[in-house]
Amino acid sequence: MITALTGRRRFSDLSEREVLALAISSEEDDAAIYRTYAERLRAEYPASAAVFEGMAADEDGHRQRLIEMLKRRFGDTIPLIRREHVAGFHARRPVWLVENLSLDTIRGEARAMEAQAERFYHLAAQSTTDADTRKLLGTLAAAEAGHEVKAERLVAEHLGEEAKGEEDQAARRQFVLTWVQPGLAGLMDGSVSTLAPIFATAFATQDTHTTFLVGLAASVGAGISMGFTEAASDDGVLSGRGSPVKRGMSAGVMTTLGGLGHALPYLIPDFWTATIIAIAVVFVELWAIVWIQNRFMQTPFLRATFQVVLGGALVFAAGALIGGG
Questions:
Q1: Which of 41, 78, 225, 307 is most buried, with most CB under 10 Å away?
Q2: What are the residue ranges spanned by the domains of the chain?
Q3: E-assigned strands of the chain?
Q4: Which pLDDT band, with edges at 50, 70 and 90, does 90 fall under?
Q5: pTM tops 0.85, yes or no
Q6: What are the phi and psi torsion angles at 77 (to 5°)?
Q7: What CATH fold (topology level) applies to the domain 11-159?
Q8: 198-220 as b/e, with b when 16 or more CB fall inside 10 Å?
Q9: What is the pLDDT of residues 134-166, one digit of tens each?
């Protein structure tokens, strides 16, 4: 029977032959996913790549045994049925998204793949009254659990504590280069560079609406400029800083947010209330920048404080003096 809403078949309506075919196609898909992970990780994380190559080979072995079982019971023709044809069957993340996954996320995806498959087969076995089908589904569930045990053995074989530590450190370094560094530069630029025009406008006009519009224009304009500059400055191939699109997005978004933080209070009609809140927001922004520099860039706390807070205070003072002059 085909479900009316999804156009998929119910798992309970599949024959044993179709269940075997579904298991075969699922094993084939999972092996392809693991090899994609291995290819993605091989250059930077060779030990993890070896783990996924081993898991893919393990899936190939299970698939071959399933094919032999199907041929022995039902002949040489394997029905064309895949997980997307069956209602409620566990989905897999599209493999083209692997480029956007971190090392830890890929490892988590692999663990989830095995756990989902095992859980699905256990639930399916409980829902059937046919003894042979129940035995088949239980066997498949045990096989999926065996995959997880095999994965742990492969991790122990290829990915010792030292190798794992090195890969984790490399992944953290890549995260800092691709996201944190350009984002921090954007936050600093957006927070500090917009101080002078926003507060100069505020003290010169004492008009909250005008001040907000100037702050909004300065923040968005700076974000667009910073984002395109970061993306165009380095393609990441030689520097290893990662995708220019990701870096541009990080820099552009954080630049805009940095400026909007002390522009948004001027949506409040009362000038002095808005200004006091904006100054408080600036204080929080500057200390957030100090924390990020200290946490991710290993900049000494006192030096980061001197650079950011003193610099921000000077820019703010310049804007206030120019606006009040």
A1: 41
A2: 11-159, 175-324
A3: none
A4: low
A5: no
A6: -85, 125
A7: Ferritin (1.20.1260)
A8: bbbbbbbeeebeebbebbbebbb
A9: 787 787 777 777 665 555 555 555 455 555 555
